[in-house]
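Re: beginner question about structure tokens

> Can someone show what the tokenized structure looks like for a real chain? I only ever see the sequence side.

Sure, here's an example I had lying around. Input first:
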Amino acid sequence: MGRASREKPVRLGEKLFEIRVKLGLSQVGMLRVLGLADKYGRHYISGFERGEREPPLRVLLRYSEVSKVWLNALVDDDVDLPEVLPSSEMHGGVGRQPGPSRRRQKRPPAGTGRPSGRRRRSAALRAV
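And the corresponding structure tokens:
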């Protein structure tokens, strides 16, 4: 039996590129920071940034830790990264304003800092 493909974040590659540039790193430098330089070449990072390859969850988690941006800010297409990276503390991203031709479900604006309470975390997990 085949598996149904899951929805992939459209802007993930763009955000990973943005993180690398805002940190002032080359692709090889990003590999070093992620702890992957001994296993992969720069083509590995390039594949993520160009949307040709989807990074494993552990790699996304490292991007999140290095940039101090919550993982949901990386994978949610409706959330932008903060202007300055790395953030001084973990950052939830910045809610995007929908364009005139873009439909968007109503949801509360992304807050900063760590989500508090079981209800918010559970809702975030259900949305993914």
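Each token stands for a local structural state, so reading them left to right follows the chain. Strands lie at 79-80, 94-95.
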